[in-house]
Write a structure and sequence with these properties.
Layout: H1 5-54, E1 56-58, E2 61-63, H2 65-68, H3 72-75, E3 82-87, E4 92-95, E5 115-120, E6 126-134, E7 141-143, E8 152-154, E9 170-177, H4 179-214, H5 216-226, H6 247-293, H7 299-331, E10 339-342, H8 343-360, E11 364-368, E12 374-377, H9 379-396, E13 402-410, E14 413-421, H10 427-430, H11 454-464, E15 468-474, E16 477-485, E17 487-488
Parallel strand pairs: 11-13
Antiparallel strand pairs: 1-2, 3-4, 3-9, 5-6, 6-9, 7-8, 10-12, 12-17, 13-14, 14-16, 15-16
Helix pairs in contact: 1-4, 6-7, 7-11, 8-9, 9-11
């Protein structure tokens, strides 16, 4: 079962509030009940002590004056109280009239610390007992406050007449029903329960309202998200009174919308660019065929037409292959296979396939770098990158211009630079050279030869290899610089720490 954020918060807060109130109410109830019982025990102890002071010993006989003259609380028929007196040998010396032949529970206690306990009274009521065990007073002796140290004081005038040789210990138990205190405790419990219930429900209601109000920005945000579609990606989420916790969430959502908008724009641009790149060669192919078929031609003319169509097909195939390579690079499905690469040999051999085209345009090429530099990297991926850079340099260098190719160690990798003269790109254009299908020639005069994905493919491959690539305009030269992190390698393929190595 899935719970909403509001339900989870309400359940958690509600459980905490209920548990807190329950603990507080129980603590208050126990404290107040203990206070009521303590007050009840104080009155019961005072009554017990008062009765104990009336009991005297004359010789061997124990005098209990309230047996013949019963006190009202022990003689009444309605809710009577009870007492019972035992001698130290267990014989019952006296019991209250309403107790008749019944017995109270004998309990240990003293005048200083009476013994208390709950017990059922003879008439079935619930009661509480107070028991004290003491020596009855004799002439010249009186029971003092039960909290004094000795519990006994003497009259100096009669001290010579006190005989301690035959003292008898007696036990007095006084019982009283607890209906009043039980009712008070019951009313206290119900009062606390009612108050805690009302307070808990009030707090939960306030918390529920606060949660509803606090989560309102989330509902507004959810509604704005649900109203978005592909045509509204230029909109951004804007909420008033946004909590601090939601500020980064909204910021990330707006950033996501920006990326989605850019992705959709690129998708539309890709569709338009691919259609344009394919339409031009197809239109040229169709025009060539239509012109050729409009009348009879000689075999030589047909052969020339077929060669023209073949050239157009090759150029179109290059466009498709570039797009497929870029798509595979984006998907990350191109495997990486490292091998030893002798950089000077690798660069010069790769340039050989572009040398004739450069000579046709009277472009001179120069190379600058150490003659002994061997690295471990994916040779095929490096070949694709440098081939695109060489191809762009040859085609975009001015007639009779210069191309400069360099390589050198840079930290834990190698830096390649390819520079050509004739650069007329400004700063804004330079920031777009790695965008897909972007070309400085808005008329796309080189359609079929350059489709604007070469540098984008280079950047994606270099990123796959963990490197970086950038383009700058330096003194009228278009300079492409790429950094490739890699290990130096010997001809055996092991990593070396030395700075000068060779590859065989």
């Amino acid at each position: 079962m899935k719970w909403s954020l509001r339900s989870r918060l309400l359940l958690g807060i509600g459980t905490t509030v209920v548990a807190g109130f329950a603990a507080a109410v129980v603590a208050i109830f126990l404290a107040m009940r203990a206070s009521l019982v303590r007050e009840f025990d104080l009155h019961l102890a005072a009554q017990t002590h008062a009765l104990a002071t009336l009991i005297k010993q004359e010789g061997d006989r124990i005098e209990i004056p309230f047996v013949d003259r019963p006190l009202p609380e022990f003689a009444r028929k309605v809710r009577p109280e009870y007492y019972q007196v035992w001698a130290d040998d267990g014989n019952v010396l006296a019991r209250s009239r309403r107790l008749e032949r019944g017995n109270l529970t004998r309990t240990n206690g003293s005048l200083a610390a009476p013994g208390f306990r709950y017990d059922d009274l003879p008439d079935g009521r619930r009661g509480r007992l107070a028991a004290v065990e003491f020596f009855p007073v004799v002439d010249g002796e009186r029971l003092d406050d039960p909290h004094t140290k000795s519990g006994i004081d003497f009259d100096d005038d009669n001290v010579d007449r006190v005989n301690f040789s035959d003292r008898r210990r007696v036990t007095l138990v006084v019982a009283r029903d607890t209906s009043e205190i039980d009712q008070a405790i019951s009313e206290l419990a119900w009062t606390l329960f009612a108050i805690s219930t009302i307070v808990t429900l009030t707090v939960l209601g306030v918390v529920s309202w606060l949660l509803t109000r606090s989560l309102q920005p989330l509902r507004v945000l959810a509604k704005q998200i649900s109203n978005l579609d592909a045509s509204d990606l230029n909109q951004r989420f804007e909420l008033s009174d946004l909590p601090d916790e939601l500020v980064p969430v909204v910021a990330r959502l707006n950033e996501l919308l920006s990326r989605l908008e850019e992705s959709f724009w690129r998708e539309r641009a890709l569709t338009a660019d691919v259609a344009h790149e394919l339409r031009t060669p197809l239109a040229g192919l169709r025009t060539t065929l239509e012109v050729t078929l409009c009348r009879s031609r000689s075999p030589k003319e047909y052969a020339k037409t077929l060669r023209t169509c073949e050239t157009i097909c090759i150029e179109t195939q290059r466009v498709v292959e570039s797009l497929l390579s870029l798509a595979r690079a984006d998907s990350g499905t191109i495997p990486l296979e490292n091998s030893n690469v002798d950089v000077p040999v690798f660069v010069t051999e790769l340039w050989e396939s572009y040398n004739d085209r450069a000579n046709e345009r009277f472009v001179t090429a120069s190379f600058d770098g150490p003659l002994t530099l061997c690295i471990q990297t994916d040779a095929d991926k490096l070949r694709v990158v440098l081939s695109n850079l060489f191809d762009n340099a040859v085609d975009y260098t001015n007639q009779g211009g210069n191309i400069s190719v360099g390589w050198r160690r840079d930290g834990h990798g190698v830096r390649f630079t390819v520079a050509n003269t004739g650069c007329e790109l400004d700063k804004d254009q330079l920031s777009k050279v790695f965008n897909r299908f972007w070309r400085a020639d808005v008329a796309r005069a080189a359609t079929g030869t350059h489709v604007g994905v070469g540098l984008a493919l280079c950047r994606r491959i270099i990123e796959m290899l963990g490197g970086s690539i950038e383009a700058v305009n330096r003194d009228g030269m278009f300079v492409t610089s790429l950094y490739l992190p890699c290990d130096l390698a010997s001809h055996s393929g092991t990593v070396l720490q030395a700075s000068n190595t060779t590859c065989s």
